[in-house]
Write a structure and sequence with these properties.
globular; binds zinc ion; eight-stranded mixed beta sheet; 821 residues; alpha+beta
């Protein structure tokens, strides 16, 4: 070895020792996993991810990992706090600052306010892969954490000093394993990169990101506590993936329409931050970044939409997907066919899509690189404009607590029955940090109810509604003690309005006169969905000093008020509402049906026993010996009968109930069984049983009729046992659902029709005449049995509690049938 060579050798040795020394103190993801996160055809499952974060916690004084609790299937749900060492050591202090900024009533002196702004840190929450097939971000989280834990450059130091990152590697740990396990199982088979045939959240599947105000799921409950009881992040970034063939990356500004309850300042801040991300991606040489398209801010209930109603910034990114962790090939033809609201196609440049991506191979590594830049970009903004973010957050809260003209509060009057629904409604508000008071002395209040009126001539033509709800004339009434009142003058004013007001989705039509599809649902008004009366309070006679009110701290206080069994641990305390023992089967195929998952959720929550019925059970037959009632949740006849096509999935996940299953189902009903169908599944029953009913909305163009995710009124025949104890008018959830006419002499008992007039209660409805007066819920005798057809979704997303009694009543009468025999 020459002298020169040996000195180079020495240098290399020295370098590798330095690197080795660092890597022994702070482990890289590769040193733990054996691969770099994002490498083609590799995936870390949940225990690997949590193991890595535990090691990082031990090795780095910039990282503190907390377990929030357990997921639905009992995996640990974790959050990693990442910040400068001195901030990590003082987390309780910063949490207190956040709690004061979130509620300006806690700040009494100007100086104190200045001190909070001077000392506070911007808290940023980043959540990865809530949708488990959008898997790359969960892998990315380890790399992001590692780089923030080890980097020494000035930019990273500024981020660490001025921000506290709450990094959630996934809010759906169960789903990460469902996807990772299938991915490993199918690697090197023709099915490599296929999405799982089961829901990737035990109950909700993809709808796990539609639960952020209802809080049905353990995961949303735990993270809501972290975010809106404890930490109040100023910025929430939710990292997603979209389809493979469109833009490479979506980032806000969002598309129209905006939710009218979101502060314009927040919309501007969201847009500003999105443009920063887009510019940083462009500067780094990435193509195909899209803004102002497809995704809107109308709906409530998403990880990134809930923050707007807590005065915080919610950012969404959607990277184009590969095939899970395998590369995908995307052609120019595929890009050219990809069009959406705000983007003609993915090959043409425009102001909001200036640099189309030129087709080719698309790898998990590309997704990860864009997500890393995006996360960095958001953290940089937060760090550079620290005081502005803290001040804006505080100011929004301050504006909300000011007294304003118009509605003062919402009221949930005592004594309306439906105690479990009242307890759930009030409980979910308390769990979100909304202030709810119990009246310990009666009050006198001016009460009003919002109604939608048809007065706009253009909308009138389409049978739809004007954009403003008006109030019924109000009058002073005595409000009994034991009622609950939710004042609007509180930091979460906009959240209360967004949950209690009827939504009036604007008429948005395409150039061809068809309805422009909203990104998600158009209406969700919570008291309506739950069948709970909640009038608006326009004024209160008693001055503030004469009222006797108690602020609720725990949902169990409401249960105690209503003499309901208390919740203790994970068990749902609700008593089974089905009056007789009944053997219920709920059909479960391999086509990942969220409606089926939510049905199980509702049955588990109400402690109604059931069995999941698989394709093999249906094909085997002898159903009458096992079940009194079979439920088919909303899915098409093709999905039920044929399932996944042969060759599209590993063989065990293909095929449906087949003709043999249909034959057994017919035998079950003619022997006296009850078949219950929800929405789309009714088509199967009508066709296979040749029922004298017709879905009048089938094949109707959206220029004639359109009603996406909205609440509509039913006229109910409550003399029918299936409608027993229900009011004569019930709100029901309609989501591109069904309406029926029956043949004149048909033996069809109609239980509910869509209301004759003013059928829309919240959301969007075009072509009211197509819906009003049509059959919404009916039963038909077949042989010794019965078929019950729900045109709507009686348990939609676990939210539509107003219509659950129809299900329990139907099952109670199914039990009657068998006990008589
Ligand atoms: Zn997603």
């Amino acid at each position: 070895m020459t002298k020169r060579l040996s000195s180079i050798f020495f240098l290399i040795l020295l370098l590798s020792i330095t690197t080795a020394a660092q890597s022994t103190t702070i482990p890289s993801p590769k040193s733990v996993l054996g691969f770099n996160p994002g490498d083609d055809r590799t995936v870390a499952g949940w225990s690997q991810i949590t193991d890595y974060f535990e090691r990082l916690d031990r090795a780095s004084d910039r990282v503190l990992v907390q377990t929030l609790g357990q997921s639905t299937l009992k995996r640990p749900l974790i959050v990693a706090f990442i910040s400068a060492r001195e901030n990590i050591l003082a987390l309780p202090k910063y949490k207190e600052i956040q709690q004061q900024l979130a509620d300006p009533r806690k700040i009494t002196q100007n100086l104190q306010h200045d001190r909070l702004l001077a000392n506070g840190k911007v808290v940023v929450a980043i959540s990865c892969s809530i949708h488990s097939t959008e898997i790359v971000a969960s892998q990315m989280s380890m790399q992001l954490a590692y780089e923030l834990a080890t980097a020494q450059d000035a930019d990273t130091r500024e981020i660490l000093q001025n921000t506290i990152l709450m990094l959630i590697p996934s809010p759906n740990p169960d789903g990460i394993d469902i996807v990772a396990n299938l991915y490993r199982k199918t690697l090197n088979t023709p099915y490599e990169g296929k999405e799982p045939p089961e829901l990737y959240h035990h109950y909700a599947g993809h709808d796990d990101n539609r639960d952020w105000f209802m809080l049905n799921l353990k995961e949303t409950q735990l993270i809501t506590r972290l975010l809106w009881h404890d930490w109040f992040p100023q910025i929430v970034y939710d990292v997603h993936q979209q389809g493979s063939n469109g833009s490479r990356f979506f980032i806000p500004p969002f598309y129209d329409p905006p939710n009218p309850n979101i502060s314009p300042l927040l919309l501007r801040q969201v847009g500003l931050m999105g443009h920063k991300v887009a510019a940083d991606l462009q500067a780094a040489g990435f193509k195909g970044v899209l803004t102002n398209a497809l995704y809107d801010t109308w709906w409530h209930g998403g990880f990134r939409t809930a923050p707007y109603f807590h005065n915080s910034i919610g950012i969404l990114s959607e990277a184009a997907s590969a095939r899970l962790m395998s590369p995908a090939t995307v052609t120019t033809e595929q890009l050219a066919r990809s069009s959406t609201r705000g983007m003609r196609n993915a090959t043409e440049s425009s102001t909001n899509f200036p640099d189309p991506w030129p087709a080719g191979q698309w790898r998990p590594r590309d997704i990860m690189a864009m997500e890393m830049i995006s996360a960095r970009s958001i953290l940089e903004m937060a760090a550079k404009f620290r005081v502005e973010y803290l001040r804006n957050f505080y100011e929004l809260g301050r504006t909300n607590i000011e007294d304003k003209e118009g509605p003062q509060a919402y009221l949930i009057p005592a004594g309306q029955g439906r105690d479990e629904a009242v307890a759930k409604l009030v409980g979910t508000l308390v769990d979100q940090g909304v202030e709810v008071y119990r009246l310990d002395r009666e009050l006198h209040a001016l009460l009003a109810t919002p109604i939608l009126r048809r007065t706009n001539p253009v909308a009138e033509k389409l049978g739809s509604y004007r954009r403003l709800a008006s109030l019924t004339s109000s009058q002073m009434q005595e409000v009994p003690l034991g009622s609950y009142i939710i004042f609007l003058a509180q930091p979460q004013r906009t959240n209360v309005l967004a949950l209690f007001e009827p939504q009036i989705y604007p008429n948005r039509l395409t150039g061809q006169g068809e309805a422009e599809r909203p990104y998600d649902v158009a209406g969700w008004t919570l008291p309506l969905q739950m069948g709970v009366e909640a009038p608006v309070v326009m004024g209160i006679r008693e001055p503030a000093g004469e009222r006797k009110l108690t602020l609720l701290k725990d949902p169990n206080e409401v249960r105690a008020d209503l003499a309901l069994p208390l919740k203790n641990g994970d068990e749902s305390p609700i008593k089974n509402p089905v009056k007789q023992p009944v053997r219920v089967g709920i059909y479960k195929g391999w086509t990942s049906n969220m409606d089926e998952g939510w049905t199980r959720y509702i049955f588990d929550t109400f402690n109604v026993p059931y069995t999941s019925v698989r394709d093999t059970d249906m094909k085997q037959g002898a159903l009458s010996s096992k079940f009194d009632a079979l439920i088919f949740t909303s899915q098409s006849a093709t999905q039920i009968i044929n399932g996944n096509g042969v060759g599209t999935m590993p063989q065990e996940y293909t095929g449906g109930i087949t003709e043999a299953g249909v034959k057994n189902l017919k035998e079950f009903v003619s022997n006296g069984g009850m078949l219950i169908c929800f929405d789309n599944a009714c088509d199967m029953a009508i066709k296979e049983f040749n029922l004298p009913l017709k879905n009048t909305l089938e094949g109707v163009r959206s220029s004639e009729f359109y009603c996406p995710g909205s609440i509509v009124a039913l006229d109910v025949d409550n003399k029918n046992p299936i409608a027993s104890m229900l009011p004569s008018s019930v709100p029901a959830y309609f989501i591109n659902s069904s309406a029926y006419t029956a043949a004149a002499d048909a033996n069809v008992r109609v239980i509910a029709r869509y209301a004759k007039e003013n059928v829309l209660l919240s959301g969007w409805l075009l072509g009211e005449d197509k819906l009003s007066g049509q059959i919404a819920l009916a039963e038909v005798n077949v042989g010794k049995g019965r078929i019950v057809l729900f045109g709507f979704r009686p348990q939609h997303r676990g939210q539509a509690w107003a219509t659950l009694p129809f299900i329990w009543n139907a099952l109670s009468t199914a039990a009657n049938n068998t006990s008589e025999e």
